[in-house]
Amino acid sequence: MSKYKCKVCGYIHEGDNPPAQCPICKAPASEFELISDATGSPASGKKKLDTNGNAYTILYATAMVVVVALLLAFTSQSLRSIQKTNEENDKRQQILRSINVRVTAKQAEAKYDEFIEDDFMVDANGRTVGDDAFTEDVAKAFDRGAFPVFVAKVDGKKKYILAMRGAGLWGPLWGYIALDDDCNTVFGADFSHASETPGLGAEIAKEDFSRQFIGKHFFKDEQFRSISVLKKGKQPLNNEDYVDGISGGTITSNGVNAMISASIGNYSKFLTSKKQ
């Protein structure tokens, strides 16, 4: 039998023909519409999608995932150039802070070009092994035994800026140390971190900490001796120069100490050759 629906009240009638009158609302037969024929197929000839079924749920979820993924990919690609510019300017700011030049992100590129005269890569033997150190990922470069050097000119005097990479309490540490043209005396320094504890280990990023390094030395009696980072009140055993560590940030301070020793140690032959 076919099914007819009253367009007035929604009553469903089964039969070969619609009723002469709706038993519910008394609407005439002309107010009935065929909703399925005698075979049970929809009157339109098309099978309706069951929105309560599992297939509909899976299709809908899949479509939403695809749409969201495409939107995220498009947004990521659209913002990539901006992100890259921001990352490069942040790196420029860090390098400039190591020569005691503090600028905004908007000023970074112009000031970097003003102060930085050259940049190249050296190996542990002090030999030049590449140029354009700025574009290098410091961590990856260190892993393959190549170390960035940036040459700056400040007040007419040459400064050598050396990169550092290490590990703190919760994540990586990095920074830059600038040496005078004697390749021994620290002109400035800058330290950064990924996730050290605010108020404790994170204090290494403050100017008060980095300022302690100014005037310290890496060579004693022509021998390389790293600048130590020690708990306040302690002194090094080998009479090398040192600075006070962060109060309450012992592990981070130890990480900075190890980072300086290992990182600048990689440059010791390069510095020695320049000194000579």
Q: Explain this structure to me?
A:
32% of the residues lie in helices and 25% in strands. The protein contains six helices and 13 strands. Helix 1 packs across helix 2. It is rod-shaped, with a radius of gyration of 36 Å. By secondary structure, it is of the alpha+beta class. It has a six-stranded antiparallel beta sheet with strand order 5-4-6-7-8-9. A three-stranded antiparallel beta sheet has the order 2-1-3, with no helix packed on it. Strands 10-11 form a two-stranded antiparallel ribbon.
- Give the strand content: 25-35%
Apparent shape: rod-shaped
Give the number of DSSP strands. 13
Instruction: Give the low-confidence spans.
Output: none
Mean pLDDT: 91
Counting DSSP H or I runs of 4 or more residues, the number of helices is: 6
Question: How widely separated are the two ends?
Answer: 106 Å
- What oligomeric assembly is this protein in? single chain
Largest sheet: 6 strands, antiparallel
Would you spell out the secondary-structure blueprint of this structure?
Blueprint: E1 2-6, E2 12-15, E3 32-36, H1 54-97, H2 105-115, E4 116-122, E5 128-131, H3 138-143, E6 147-154, E7 157-167, E8 172-179, E9 186-193, H4 207-210, E10 219-220, E11 223-224, E12 228-230, E13 242-244, H5 250-265, H6 268-275
Parallel strand pairs: 12-13
Antiparallel strand pairs: 1-2, 1-3, 4-5, 4-6, 6-7, 7-8, 8-9, 10-11
Helix pairs in contact: 1-2
